[in-house]
Amino acid sequence: MTTASNAIRAITASFKAQAQQKTDKAAQWKARLIDLKQRNPCNPVKEAKPQDRYQILSKEARELTAKTQEFEDAVYDLKAVNSNAKANQDTRTPLELLDLIVTKGCEVMATLDRLWM
Question: Does some domain include residue 36?
Answer without folding.
Answer: yes
